[in-house]
Structures are given as C-alpha cells and as structure tokens.
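Okay, any thoughts on this one?
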Amino acid sequence: MGNTRPLPQPEAPSGPPAPQRAAAARPQTRARRYLKRAAITLLILILIVIAGIGVLWIATPSATDAAELARAQAAEHGIAYPGPPVPSNFARPLIATEDKRFYTEPGVDLLAVGRVAWAKVSNGSDQGGATLEQQLAKMLFTPVETGPTAELKQVVLAFKLNATYSKAQILALYAEVAYYGHGYYGLEQASCGYFGHPAADLTVPQGAMLAGVVNAPSLDDPIADPASARQRLEHVIARMVAVGDLTSSQANAALAAPLGIVPRDQAGC
C-alpha cells in the first residue's frame, strides 16, 4: 500500500465550553433586563409625579394668599401683623438647622427630595428634607392635611412661594406663623414670653433655642422639658458650626452662656 497521510485533527476550542459561556452570559443578561425594567419604572414614576404636580399647580391656591392667611392667623393668636424684622440671631440658626441651601434653592431642595424618595422606595430612614418654603406652605395652606397628596401640595406651593416672595419675606412669614411652644405664636411673642425682651435683642443661644423649638414645640419646650430643649439647642449650635456660622470657640461660648429664660410672672415685653 502507498503512504497515507494522517487525517487532520480538529482544533481545540480556544475558550470555555459552550454551556459554560452560556451560563456566564445569563447573569449579565438578567442584570441588563433588571436595569432596563428599573429605568422604565423610574421614568414612569417621574412622569406620574410631573403630571400630578401639573394638576396640583392648577388646583392649589395662589401664593399671594400667603400674606392674608398669615394676617388671619396672627389675628387668631392675638399677635401683631406684620411682625418685626427677623434678626440674624434667629435667621442664621433656623437656616442652618432646617434648610441650609435656603438662599440658593428654588423653594424645594431637590437633593433632599431625592433622598426622601429613595428612603420611601428602599424602606430606609426618612431624614426629612422639607425646606422653609415647604414648611411655610404646610403651616399656611395645609395645616391639618397629611399624606402624599398633602406633601405634593406643599412642594407645589413652595415653588409658588419662592417665585412670589423674596427670601427675606419668606423668613418674615415663617417667623410670624410658626409655633414656638408654651402657647407662643410668632417670633416676637415667643421672645417676649421666654426671655422678656423683643426679638431684636435675641442672643445667639436664645435665637438658636427658638430656631430649634419650632421643629417639635411640645417636645423641646424649654419650660416644660428643659433637658430635651438643651439637647435640641446643642444640635442647632452644632449645625451652625457645620455651615460656618460659628467657630468652635464661639459655639462653646454660646452653650456656656445663660439662656436667660425669665420667670413666668416676668414674661412679656
């Protein structure tokens, strides 16, 4: 027989076997599918929120009603309207604690709203995020309403308030209608009631105490619960340090200074 050439051998596969490649590709495909679904769901939610805000923009009152509502509340509580100018020793701690981006945001802190929305979706802790405008909207327009619809109304009204009033006017409205515990409404009444002098004479710790008490007036009342009020004061002073309103030495001095709450028979201006 003549010489026979050996048959060519099949080349060895260069990668892992096909079943392994398919198995490796499945998680990536599944992950892409989940991401796509999440993106579509998020887009739908955003569109629903935008549509809801559009409806509420039409349905909610005009922000020009805020001044008249504040006047009516002042009359109900027996205080003057408008109140005196908001002193720096109240405005600075209030903004540092409640709304550090107050002067740059359009009435709503979009970063805080996103954080709150994520907390609701992920069942995480809700750290809050209502701006001063949103809080003012709640106090004036939706004082007894709760739930998502009320919160959306407050967001819409916050945009309206920001577009209608200057930041100084919003601070003045807020200071006028806020409740400061112990039966005191309005900054002037609270300053006279707790400290026996007008709001213009508030010290840093006094202004910080009043700025802190509006968050939970019944819990942080410095007369009914001085320990809780002190903890809240320390938090507000710490926030002032964090945003650069006070140095550490100034904060220590403020916390060491006497608060100056007057006896009840000396309350008033």
